[in-house]
Amino acid sequence: MPPLRRLLAALRPPGAGLPLLLGAVFLLTGLGWAQLLDWDENIYAEVARQMVQRGEYVAPVLNGHPFVEKPPLVLWEMAAAFHLLGVNEVAARLPSALGGVALLAFLVWAGRRLVDAPLGWAWALVYGSTLIPLVFGRSAVIDHTFNGLMAAGAFLLLLYDRARERFLTGGAPRRTHWALLGAASVAMGLAVLAKGPLGGVVPLVAFGGAKLVRRRPGIHPGHFAFCAALSLAVGLSWYAANFLRAGEAFLEGFARFQGLLLSRPLEGHRGPFWYHFGAVLVGFFPWTPLLLLYALRDVRRALWADRATRELLALCGAWLAFVLVLFSFVQTKLPHYSSSAYLPLALLAALALERLRRQGRAVPRWAAVLLAGYGALVGGLVLALPAFAERLAADAGAALEHPPQLSPWAFLPGAALVLGTAVGALWLARGRLRPGAVAVAVAAGLFVVGLWRFHLPLVVAYNQGPVLTLMRQAYATGGDLVLYRHVSFAVLFYGGRDVEMLHTYKFPGDPGLLDAPGPRPRYVISPRAEVERLRREHPRVAPVRELGRLALLRLPARDEAP
């Protein structure tokens, strides 16, 4: 077959080419269009920058203090990207984006092995165009890589179990299920090395859900021991190395941070008990209405009657229940804590779509209307944003010396979303399920890429623009910088220096710095609401200026006249 025809065949459903091509475009386009966003992106990028600067990759450092909150797998990837591409936004975000493309390739392959090629195609298409996974895949955060490794662990375990069953009946060689078990074990170990112990727990819970409806073959004790030993050897390698170097202080620091997450809402990230149940439904945009297809009794019965899909339903149910309930008890509420839920949700949506397609049926009109309406609502909000942007910023207390203006093309993401979801919903309602799904996926992908191009720079400017402006003013006069009751990691990454941060749970700090002048003037960035307390505690500091919700103050150098 000529190369062009092979390419076209790969792009035609259910070939792997189309979801991978769309995923690569949506994940890799314009990674450097905006600065890294405080907090998470700047935290991880700064730790990776420090790795490169110090040449220390085993014991990460943040702002002069050991960084024990997260293990270093993704930080190592960022550091490698910094070595290759320099320290910049593209290099910081590239590991997540490349990992996202690799995850889509895994979903295509796993879907084909678990059921058939059309399921793998639909699963990758839905997941690759879901709002939160797409945003995280374009961000310098840990979660997208972590979630992908957990997915690999869970579904490779199920494939191992099926291969072992075929081996026991003479239908597969022994090496197949051992290879799958080894790959699953390594994936779970790497997940632990990416974010922590849940990287091994979630895949085991999900696999346990599948085993509730898949009783045979039973779990082999020797295989279980092999899986545990290999995954723990990979996952605990970094923890062991740091324990040998730092002793109990390392474990105490790690446990302290995890305890804080459980015991109280950090940085004001609080919410109701059911927060994550609502968050995942919103974050599954634009595909959330397709989950209502499970209200159709014949769809549920058909999927449950098939052994292969019944196992997947049970696996997804166990995964979702465990993650959503567990993080409901965690006091700090953030959407990325439950972001692994989008993998089973995408699989559920793909299973329902594929069941309708096999039955030659269209998506019910009410579901199509909900899908189009959801797209129109979100797209309409973005279309209206330029009219309210300045007022929203002013109400939030944000201010910039030279505020950026929205491009006249800023309407494009919202328009693409409204039009694309409407066309896709129409095709889905007419029974053209694959073209309809592609139209919705393209609309969602263009929407996120458009937000990155036109809207995210504005959000970043108001989020960290004031603190970076004040930081540059302090450094331009040869001064040192101190943050008082305020935390910003953008000043670390973009300033390239450690900064004392006083009265925060992140760093101990030394308040005496504001009472004893040094060889250079010390500039203090404080929330305006805390200036009175700051001057009462440290009378030598004097106001310089205010910008938005922040104030800049100055402690004179030792040799300056009183």
Molecular structure report:
There is one protein chain. The chain is mainly alpha-helical and 562 residues long. Among the domains are: 3-264, no CATH class; 477-555, no CATH class. Helix content is 64%, strand content 5%. It has 22 helices and 7 strands. The termini are far apart.
What's a quick, concise take on this entry?
This protein is mainly alpha-helical and 562 residues long. It contains 22 helices and 7 strands.
Number of strands: 7
Give the amount of beta strand, in percent.
5-15%
Q: Average pLDDT across residues?
A: 90
- In DSSP terms, counting alpha (H) and pi (I) runs of 4 or more, how many helices? 22
What is the helix content? 55-70%
Tell me, what's the shape?
globular
Uncertain runs are none
* Structure classification: mainly alpha
**Largest sheet report:** 5 strands, mixed
- Helix and strand string, N-terminal first? HHHEEHHHHHHHHHHHHHHHHHEHEEHEE
Order of strands, main sheet, comes to 4-3-5-7-6
- Distance, first to last CA: 84 Å
C-alpha Rg (nearest Å):
26 Å
Strand and helix layout:
Elements: H1 3-11, H2 17-28, H3 40-54, E1 61-62, E2 65-66, H4 73-85, H5 89-114, H6 117-128, H7 131-137, H8 143-168, H9 174-194, H10 198-213, H11 221-235, H12 237-246, H13 248-263, H14 275-283, H15 297-305, H16 307-329, H17 342-358, H18 365-395, H19 412-429, H20 433-476, E3 480-484, H21 490-495, E4 500-502, E5 522-527, H22 531-537, E6 542-547, E7 550-555
Parallel strand pairs: 3-4, 3-5
Antiparallel strand pairs: 1-2, 5-7, 6-7
